[in-house]
Specification:
Layout: E1 2-9, H1 15-26, E2 36-45, E3 53-62, E4 65-73, H2 76-100
Parallel strand pairs: 1-2
Antiparallel strand pairs: 2-3, 3-4
Helix pairs in contact: 1-2
Amino acid sequence: MIKINVQSIHFSADSKLIAFIEKKLSRLSRYFEQNIEVDVHLKLQDTGSKVQEKVTEIRLNIPGGWLIDKKTDRTFEAALTSSVDTLKRQLTRHKERAVQHPRTRM
């Protein structure tokens, strides 16, 4: 199960963007079967040009720690898509390490 918390800083995100975020992040449950809490921070970054850069910062709280990714792009959708790809790789690697090196209890 994935619990998603979206925060937009200095603007209000519309329902289409939130639905897109939930759809993309819900796919991460394919790679990790346990409960995942996701914090998504959306920010606008002023670069001095006409178009502001869009920054997405995603933090996954999984059993065993945090996975974090931050991307900047022209649109939130593009930044989020590349972040989700990176997080898929991180989740897969985390899962492989957990299987290879299980914690032993005394």
